[in-house]
What we know:
Layout: H1 15-43, H2 48-68, H3 82-86, H4 93-108
Helix pairs in contact: 1-2, 1-4
Amino acid sequence: MQASTSTDPRTHHFLPNVISNSQQIHYVKSTTASIAGATAGLLGLTNLSGFAFYLVASLVVGASFAAGNCKASPTKYFAKATDVFLGGLLDNAFAFVLFWTLFYALVHIYD
């Protein structure tokens, strides 16, 4: 993780560092979406319980990323703190649904 050079959170961030940090969180969240989808399929979750599982998994990963890599100060490393928690939520939903339906079909369709 690369921090901005200033300690004042109201100042502008160094754009290449913000882009690099955003790419890192996107990679982590896209991988997590695939794993969460496979887990939801294996558990046999359907309807809203599956989407709730995805939302919780995404928020837990965002909170873990903020606590671990950002040292509990995401505004120091990202333009907005919400980018860590909600960034990529809709972008990764397709991968989640893909793995969710695949693993659900492999395990539960022919019971």
